[in-house]
Design brief:
Elements lengths: L3 H10 L14 H14 L1 H12 L4 H21 L3 H18 L3 H14 L7 H5 L4 H25 L1 H10 L1 E2 L5 E2 L8 E3 L2 E3 L1 H26 L6 H21 L2 E2 L5 H10 L4 H17 L9 H17 L25 H12 L1
Antiparallel strand pairs: 1-4, 2-5, 3-4
C-alpha cells in the first residue's frame, strides 16, 4: 500500500523495474523509487529521536543515535529497498511513546497500523499488553487488530487463494537468501521454497513467554508509581529481545531482517554514553558484515545471532532497578500507577517544580 504512489508513477512513465547494478547502469525506476523509499524509511529516525528526547537524552547523544540508526537503516532502505520494515518499526516506537503519555487508544491504533504495514511488530505486542490495565486489554487488542484485518480482508476479497497461501505458508527461498539451521525443519512447498510460517509461530509463542517473564519482574515493585526513565528503557530492551526471536528461528534469513532489533536496541541504550557508543559500533559493524554472501546453514546465521546478542547485551542497563533523574511521566500508564497518597503528593511536587 505505501508503495502504490511510486508504482503508479513508474507505470505511467513506462520505466523499467530492474534494480541498479553492473548490468543496469541507468536504472530509471530506482531514480523514482529509491528516494521515495529512503524518505519513507526516515520516519524511523524521527521516531527514535522522539523517544530519546522523552528519555531525557542530550543533543549529542541524540545526534549519535540518529547517525547509528541511519547507518543501520541503509541496510533496509538503500541496500534492499524494504521501507515497510522501517515504517512498521517507526509506528511501533511512536506507539510506545503514546503509551508513555497515557494515550492508550492512540497507541493501539499505531500498533495496528504498524502490523498492517509489516506484521513483524507482532512480536513486541505481548510486552505492550502486559503493561496495560486488564480491563483495557480487550479494547486495545481490538483496535490494534482492526487495520490488519481490513488490509487482509481486502486482499482476500481480491484473490483469496493467493492471499491465504502467502499468509499461512509465507514462502522463502534458501537458495536465494541465507539458509539457517531451521531450513532443514521447514516444510518444503515446491519451486525451491520453504514455509517460514511455522518457525515464526514459534517466535511469537516465545515472545509471549518473554512478556510473562518481564511482567513478573515489573510487578515485583520496581515499576510501581511514576515510571523512571529506566522503566521505558527496559520496555524497549525487552522489545528488542522479542524482535530478535525472529532472527533466531527464521527458516531463511535476509540481511535486513536484523534491522528492527538494532533500531530498538539503540534507543534502549541512549541513556549512557558507554552503552550507546558500544552498541552503535557493534550495530554498524553488523550491518555491513551481514552483506557477506555465506550460504552455509550455520556460518552466516551464527555470526548474525552472535552480533545481535552482543548488541543486546551492550544496550542493556546493568542496574535495571535503579531510579535515575529525568523521570518519564509513565506513572499514568494503566495498571502500573501507584495509588499511594504520599506518592501522588510527591508527584505533584515534582511536577510543580
Amino acid at each position: 500500500m505505501i508503495l502504490v504512489p511510486v508504482v503508479a508513477l513508474i507505470d505511467a512513465t513506462d520505466l523499467a523495474l530492474s534494480s541498479p547494478g553492473p548490468h543496469n547502469a541507468h536504472p530509471g525506476s530506482w531514480l523514482v523509487a529509491g528516494p521515495y523509499e529512503i524518505l519513507l524509511s526516515a520516519t524511523a529516525l524521527f521516531a527514535a529521536d522522539a523517544l530519546a528526547e522523552r528519555l531525557g537524552a542530550s543533543q549529542p547523544k541524540r545526534a549519535l543515535l540518529a547517525a547509528a540508526e541511519a547507518v543501520a537503516l541503509w541496510n533496509v532502505s538503500v541496500r534492499w529497498g524494504h521501507p515497510e520494515d522501517a515504517v512498521a518499526v517507526a509506528l511501533l516506537l511512536y506507539a510506545v511513546l503514546a503509551l508513555a503519555e497515557s494515550k492508550a487508544e492512540k497507541s493501539a491504533w499505531l500498533v495496528g497500523a504498524a502490523a498492517a504495514v509489516q506484521p513483524l511488530v507482532v512480536l513486541a505486542v505481548p510486552l505492550i499488553v502486559v503493561v496495560l490495565e486488564p480491563r483495557r486489554t480487550v479494547s486495545y487488542l481490538i483496535r490494534a487488530a482492526s487495520p490488519a484485518a481490513v488490509v487482509i480482508g481486502a486482499a482476500l476479497s481480491a484473490n483469496w487463494q493467493a492471499t491465504l497461501n502467502a499468509v499461512v505458508e509465507q514462502p522463502n527461498w534458501p537458495t536465494v537468501d541465507h539458509p539457517t539451521p531451521g531450513t532443514a525443519l521447514a516444510p518444503h512447498i515446491g519451486h525451491g521454497a520453504v514455509s517460514a510460517g511455522p518457525a515464526r509461530c514459534i517466535a511469537i509463542a516465545l515472545a509471549c513467554g518473554f512478556a510473562l517473564v518481564a511482567q513478573h519482574r515489573w510487578r515485583g515493585g520496581q515499576l510501581l508509581g511514576e515510571w523512571p526513565a529506566s522503566a521505558l528503557e527496559q520496555l524497549l530492551w525487552w522489545m528488542a529481545v522479542a524482535l530478535a526471536l525472529r532472527c533466531v528461528f527464521e527458516s531463511v534469513m535476509v540481511a535486513y531482517y536484523l534491522w528492527p532489533v538494532l533500531a530498538v536496541a539503540l534507543v534502549a541504550a541512549v541513556a549512557r554514553w558507554s552503552r550507546l557508543l558500544a552498541a552503535a559500533v557493534v550495530a554498524s559493524g553488523l550491518t555491513f558484515v551481514s552483506q557477506v554472501s555465506w550460504h552455509g546453514r550455520w556460518t552466516w546465521w551464527s555470526a548474525m545471532v552472535a552480533g545481535l546478542t552482543l548488541t543486546l547485551l551492550l544496550a542493556r542497563d546493568e542496574h535495571p532497578g535503579r531510579m535515575r533523574t529525568g523521570a518519564v511521566a509513565l506513572g499514568a500508564l494503566p495498571g502500573l500507577a501507584a495509588a499511594s497518597p504520599q506518592g501522588n503528593q510527591e508527584t505533584r511536587l515534582r511536577n510543580s517544580t
